[in-house]
Amino acid sequence: MKDIETMNTTPKTLIAAVAIAMLTPLGALADDAHHKPAAAKAAGADDLTDGEVRKVDLDAGKVTLKHADIKSLDMPAMTMVFAVKDKAMLDKLKTGDKVRFKVVNDGGKFTLTEIRPAK
User: Fold this and answer.
1) Which pairs with CB-CB distance under 8 Å and at least 24 residues apart come from 89-96?
2) What is the pLDDT averaged over residues 69-96?
3) What is the 3-state secondary structure (H, E, C) of the chain?
4) What does DSSP say about strands 78-84 and 109-117: parallel, antiparallel, or unpaired?
5) What is the mean pLDDT of residues 89-113?
6) Which residue in 28, 69, 71, 89 has the most C-beta neighbors within 10 A?
7) What is the CA 24 to chain-centroid distance, rounded?
8) CA 57 to CA 49: how far, in whole Å?
9) Which pTM value belongs to this model?
């Protein structure tokens, strides 16, 4: 690679190139959501995971779920304890219920943000 001294450029040209690069919106450089395939859009639209309630701990605000792969977190199927965003989410759950749920990684703590009966 040539170094700057041997290239036919001036400092003004370099400054202009850097300025253009810094002002170019990232969307112009990357493919935006309007141009993504339908499959990619659909994957983000339904990020609920299938699971089965194994244990409900109302006092601690936790639920144990046997769950399928959680694609949004790149987590394989397993049985795991999750904290819930709101303890009221646990009021109607009982062991054996089939559910669909959403979990997020909140600073290293996996937190259930949504849960509903499976259809």
Assistant:
1) 89/114, 89/115, 90/56, 90/57, 90/58, 90/61, 90/63, 91/58, 93/53, 93/56, 93/63, 94/53, 94/56, 95/53, 95/54, 95/55, 95/56, 96/52, 96/53
2) 95
3) CCCHHHCCCCHHHHHHHHHHHHHCCHHHHCCCHHHCCHHHHHHHHCCCEEEEEEEEECCCCEEEEEECCEHHHCECCEEEEEEECCHHHHCCCCCCCEEEEEEEEECCEEEEEEEEECC
4) parallel
5) 95
6) 89
7) 27
8) 20
9) 0.62
Question: What is the token pair recorded at 27?
Answer: 């969307």
CA distance 45 to 17: 39
Residue with tokens 């904290």: 83
- pLDDT given for residue 44 in this prediction: 46
Beta bridge partners of 104: 111
